[in-house]
Structure formats: C-alpha cells, structure tokens
C-alpha cells in the first residue's frame, strides 16, 4: 500500500466517524431505532476501513455481516496490535471477541432498526439500552480503527 492509497482509504474512517456522531445525536433525541441503524452502518465502515488498510480484498464481501472476515483476518489484526501497542494476547483476544459479537449483533438488528416488522405492524423496536449497546460496539471498533490508523500514519509519516 502506498501513502496515497492510505489517504484515500482514510475517507472510509472519516465517513464512519460522521455516521457515529449522527447515531449519538439520534440516541440523544430518543430516535433509538435510527440510532441502532446508523451505529450498524458506522460499525461496518470501521471494519471495512480496517480490512482495506490491512490490504484485504473486501469488495467481494461488501455485505453487512462481516464476522467470517473477522475470523479469517484475526491474525493480521492481532499482529498489528501486538507490534504497535504491545498488547497482551489475552487482551487482543478479548478485543477480537467483542468485535465479532458487535458484528453479529448489529447485523441481526439492522433490518428491524430500519424497517420494523411488517407482520407485527411494529416499526419501533429498540429502547435506549439497545442504542447504548450499539454505540458501545461502535466505540470499541472506533478505538481499534484509530489505533490501526495511527500505526499506518506512523509508518508513512515518520
């Protein structure tokens, strides 16, 4: 990856941060379903940023549920966290487990958060606690994204 490639890829992370901010605002105004939906979108973009920075081919998996890619690329992420941040193996495993849980959970909530359930004629499912949990998953991935971005910033700009 070149420095120019990295600059373009950072646009994904910038977009994720904007969407994360919107999800926080929506939660604050009581729009919990939309907050959950926007959280899922931010989470997905952060993951795609990470995998793209790691030079992994994500075009073929540009779906919404990325846990299989998380499983496949765990070692690449762990290597960066260990090299750059000197994290313990157990802490890195915990981070990876939380990312996978966030991906699976937010994917399950995605359609309900946006469309509701036609059969039940129910269009608002989520409460404040779910919106907070969704934002917690996003925050964890946002932190990982920032660590990885800093790692590559140091690599290209040191």
Shape: elongated
Characterize the main sheet: none
Q: Which value, in Å, is the CA radius of gyration?
A: 16 Å
| Count of discrete alpha- or pi-helical segments spanning 4 or more residues | 5
Quickly list its features:
single chain; 158 residues; mainly alpha; 78% helix
How does this model look, in words?
The protein has 158 residues and is mostly helical. Helices cover 78% and strands 0% of the residues. It is built from five helices and no strands. It is elongated and about 55 Å long. It starts with a helix and ends with a helix. The mean pLDDT is 86.
Please render the helix and strand layout as text.
Blueprint: H1 3-28, H2 32-53, H3 67-85, H4 89-115, H5 128-157
Helix pairs in contact: 1-2, 1-5, 2-4, 2-5, 3-4, 4-5
Give a concise summary.
The protein has 158 residues and is mainly α.
